[in-house]
Structures are given as C-alpha cells and as structure tokens.
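fwd from M.: "can u put these together and see what the complex looks like"

so here's what she sent:
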Amino acid sequence: MGTLRILSGMRPTGKLHLGHYTGALENWVEQQNQVTEEGARVYETCFLIADYHNLTTSLDTRDIFSHTLDMLVDWLAAGIDPEKSPLFRQSQIKEHAELFLIFSMLITSSRLERNPTLKEQVRDLNMESLTYGHLGYPVLQAADILLYKGNVVPVGEDQLPHVEITREIARRFNNLYPHPHIGDVFPEPAPKITKFSRLVGLDGKAKMSKSLGNTILLADGPEEVLKKMRNAVTDTEKIRKNDPGHPEVCTVFSYHEKFANPDQLAQIEEDCRAGSLGCVDCKRICSANISGELAPLLERRRYYEANMDLVKSILLDGEAKAEVIAGHTMQEVRAAMKLGEKRW
Ligand code: TRP
C-alpha cells in the first residue's frame, strides 16, 4: 500500500487564532512530520486555502488576498513546510470547479438540506435564505478532497457531515463510473477528529471565533496574551482571591488542560479548589504557558514577514504542484465517464 494522503483546508478569514491551532494546524504539522521507523513519511500532506468557500458567507472579496497571505504566514509560522506540503488556493486550480459540477449531479438537494453544519451556520448567522452555492458547500469540499485522492481528512467535529457526504459521493461515482484500467477512481476518505477541536473563547462562549472577538491570535506576543487573558471569564462564584474555585466551569482552566504539563495541571486544579490560587496568578501561569508555546511561531513569523516575496512564491509553487495532481485526476474522471471521447 502506498503512502496515505492527507488533504485538509481552511477558509481564508485572516489571521488565525489559538482555536485554529489546537483544532487543526498543530495536527497538520505533526502529521506532516510523522515518519516510520525507516524514516519514510507516514502521510503525504496537501493543504488548501478554501477561497471559493469563503464566498458562501461573504461576497466581499476586497480583503481576500491579504487574508490569504495572513493565513499562509500563520501556517508557515506554525511549522508547515512547503517542501513537504503543497499549499494552494482552490480558486487557482480550475479542476475544483469542474469536479464540483460533476459531483453536484451525484447528490440530491434534500440530502444537502439535511446537513447539520449548514443548519447551525444558518442559525448562527441569522441567514434568511441560502444561495445555491452555499447549499453545495460540502459538494465543493468533496471535490477538494477527492481531486487529490485524500485518504485522511483531519478536521474539527463540525466538518464530519462534510466528510460523510464526500464518502457518499466517492462511492456513488465509483459505482457509476468504473475506470477501464484502475477501477475505482476515488478513495473513500476517513475523517480524523482532533481532540481539542473546539477551544472555548476568552468570554467563556462555546467557541473561539473571530466574529465573536474572543480570541488569542497566533501573532500575539506575550504582553498581548497577558492583556487578553486578564479579561478572560473564570468561575463566576470565585469572587475573592481565596474563594475556592471550580475548574470544571472555568475558561482559563480549559486552557490549562491544553497548555499546562500534567503535574502543573494537577497542582493548579488542587490549589484552585483549595482557594490557595487566585485567578490573577492563575491567569499569569496560563499566559506564560501559551506564550511559551507560541514563541517558536513568533520567531518563524518574523522571518516570513520580512520575506513576503518568498511567501508568495511558496504559494505559486504549491499551486503548480497541485495543478499536476488535479489535472491527472480529472483525466481519469473524464476517461471513466467517457466525456470527451476521442473516437468519432
Ligand atoms: N470546510 C472547511 C472549514 O470550514 C474548510 C475546507 C474546505 C476543507 N475544503 C476542505 C477542510 C477540504 C478539509 C478538506 O473548516
């Protein structure tokens, strides 16, 4: 069996925050660098900038390129290595649109209307009606994944329905259109859920998110992290420093669970419950841990930000590589479907 391919992506919404890091980016880097005992890579990794998908919730494209570059710098700062992982914009590889069109015939609109992630989004954004393209969000995502024959798709929980739809489309295509030589054109990709797929926002809301303004950015330096942390919501029943706290309801403790080492975590929990650790000190510990984790990212960020021409050429290079893979898959698709038959 060959190396498994990982395909994942994000929408370019600008600078990334800690939720993106713990929910996706950190895992991407780990999977990119994972090797067998013989030193071979476990996965081939491809990461996509879903700029078309952005249009589903915003038609304002004025900042799309600056947001793309901001996100790319965050990826590189986090340790994505463009030599190992092609990085590319969906909009630059025309095969995404082509495969999306074909896939849109292989799924019913009622199936897409049942998508819980879509329902959640419509509710959260108070959308009165839906565009045709937005309904097709998972179909485009299926094209993203299957153009590169992704076997594994690391995603947060909210994306599970989309990977399921991708599997259904792959099965349907393979059944309808066996390729004369290779049989199944597409693999049935498996989702890989990340443990910290949702990081609570600083305000205690369920999710860290740009639109809620409750984030710590990957670009935030130690002072900024501390400043934001000071306003973080804790256990509302712990009013005075020495009141006993309830870590299970505390936002800051949920960060400790991710960023403190196990011994430190146990100590924090004990001291908080006993009332011997006040929130101010607790937040200071938490900020230091987060900034410690972000320090190497800040370092790499400085390098890339001083070399934006390099960042742009990384993107063009990734797009050239992606184009080759996508073009090859589309040839197989056309051959399997007998589209563009050469015999008259
Ligand atoms: N829908 C994903 C999100 O909002 C982004 C995305 C687009 C994606 N295409 C993808 C994720 C392909 C994984 C694979 O997070």
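replying to her w this: The pocket of tryptophan is lined by residues 7-11, 48, 50, 53, 141, 144-145, 153, 155, 159 (CB under 6 Å).
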